[in-house]
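## Example pair
The file below holds two records. Each record gives the amino-acid sequence first, followed by its structure token line.
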Amino acid sequence: MTTGSDLKERVQVQHLLHYPEADAFAWEVKRNTWAKAEQDTRKNLFFSVGIGARGVTFTLRRNPELSIVHSFLWRGQFCFLTSIVDGDPGFQVVKAALCDPVDCIKDADMETQGCRFPGILTEKYVGHEQLDPHAEVTGDLVLVTPKVVSLKPGSWVLIGGRHFLVRVPHELDPHKNEYEIRRTEDT
């Protein structure tokens, strides 16, 4: 049975804000709360087409304002929420994936600066093809975005100073979008 004395970890609840004047989205701390935190031994598979991330389970006092569209900061680590269920009376259990968010720019090119938004990258597949007299390395990744960010197949997204081609959208989840993206480089 969970009690208030079990809640020893400080957690910051974040929500996504839109800054129209800058055409940008960013995670901002909404409030602080206390939780019991337990790292999971299995990966949290929060992507439908990518590789999962380490997971953590939080138990906290029930808060009707908390939803899956929020995120947590815990011990300086970004936590992508994947489920919220009822726990012991007066408490709720939140599953999350420990991730490293990346700064992304939608539809960026040499002349215009596109919309900025936070995303999460995971590896999908890396291939190598030998073409005479050079070789190409193809990196297929999965980019997870907040639901309010929509990318079109064939468009480009700038991540870490590198352009990636948006290939396949997966937008059926009600809380997030996933995009298969690709970068091909000569070696």
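Second record, same layout:
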Amino acid sequence: MIYWRPGCRYCRRLRFRPGRDARRGHWADIRRGPAAAAVRAVADGNGTVPTVVLPDGEAYVDPDPEWVRERL
């Protein structure tokens, strides 16, 4: 799961630098639905984006786009 917010330049970088591989990720806008609460649960109560949560539950705030590409 990749949590993001419209207008966030770091989210944009994370979305476009991995190229087509970025489409394989599940992107959740923290302004909609329960995504905001979910990102706060893994980011020490903050709505910090981009935040990537791996299937094993490990969370990474503002990871390198190449790192994300390798895991997609």
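Notes on the second record: The mean pLDDT is 85. Strands lie at 2-4, 27-29, 51-53, 59-61.
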